[in-house]
Recover the amino acids of this structure.
């Protein structure tokens, strides 16, 4: 069996199509099709079936996929046997929300690149639920996100740290609208978020529901920077991790709105499959997380 056929199969599943896999691997689409046909001949099973206009993994394909991932992991281990981390030649795929990537991870990533210069680091900025789904499906090696739960027993969730979230507004906001303690209110304010399904955002929604505080509209932005700029321009309010707005609060371009959620921590975890080979690169990144992220966020 040629392991590059297995890599082709995995790339199809990660990218979502034969065409995208061919582009990523720098193959022709006919080469990708040939690789899958060879695997189907060797395994004596049908790996893909056409549903509508899309090629989907068959039930047999789903059953053997974990074993294929193990073969690729073992191959990578053999290829790097005896190598120091500085010589490790492999790929590490990580998923994390943009507020962690932009505000907490860049110093850590710089350390990782210095210690493992030959490792290809692929970081996907995703919402927490998409990260969990990608970890479960094998699309990423390591997920770093809020502890939203929902993992099967075959997955490990390592506690990393925690952060607090706060409700923020523009200094130009009508000060009569700043009471978020008294129940039974109707406010002509928009709630702006870049990740409406995050754990801290769900906590705020529950808080507002329990106190019967009704806002005007929910607005979703592409990222946290767009959210902050919108709030600073008095387009609405936002509930954000406190470490992402430290600068704006100190400069007075944002103000904090008091809620009874203040100082209730949001846990952060790193997640991966318990049977996954912990490569030197993955081990290094996990160690850097525990050494650097814990004191930084929870300080």
């Amino acid at each position: 069996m040629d392991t590059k056929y297995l890599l082709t199969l995995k790339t199809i599943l990660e990218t979502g199509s034969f065409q995208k896999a061919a582009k990523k691997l720098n193959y022709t689409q006919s080469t990708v099709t040939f690789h899958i046909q060879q695997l189907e001949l060797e395994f004596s099973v049908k790996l893909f079936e056409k549903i509508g206009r899309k090629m989907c993994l068959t039930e047999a394909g789903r059953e053997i996929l974990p074993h294929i991932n193990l073969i690729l992991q073992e191959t990578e281990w053999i290829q790097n046997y005896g190598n120091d981390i500085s010589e490790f030649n492999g790929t590490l795929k990580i998923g994390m929300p943009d507020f962690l990537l932009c505000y907490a991870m860049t110093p850590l990533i710089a350390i990782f690149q210095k210690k493992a210069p030959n490792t290809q680091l692929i970081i996907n900025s995703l919402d927490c639920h998409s990260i969990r789904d990608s970890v479960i499906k094998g699309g990423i090696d390591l997920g770093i996100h809020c502890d939203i739960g929902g993992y099967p027993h075959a997955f490990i969730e390592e506690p990393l740290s925690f952060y607090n979230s706060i409700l923020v507004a523009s200094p130009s906001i009508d000060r009569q609208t700043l009471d978020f303690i008294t129940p039974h209110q109707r406010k002509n304010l928009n709630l702006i978020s870049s990740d409406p399904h995050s754990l801290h955002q769900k906590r705020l929604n529950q808080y507002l529901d329990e106190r019967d505080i009704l806002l005007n509209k929910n607005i979703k932005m592409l990222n946290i920077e767009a959210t902050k700029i919108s709030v600073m321009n008095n387009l609405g309010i936002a509930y954000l991790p406190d470490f992402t707005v430290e600068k704006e609060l100190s400069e007075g371009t944002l103000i904090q709105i008091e809620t009874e959620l203040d100082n209730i921590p949001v846990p952060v975890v790193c997640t991966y499959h318990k049977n996954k080979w912990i490569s030197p690169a993955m081990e290094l990144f996990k160690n850097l997380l525990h050494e650097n992220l814990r004191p930084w966020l929870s300080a």
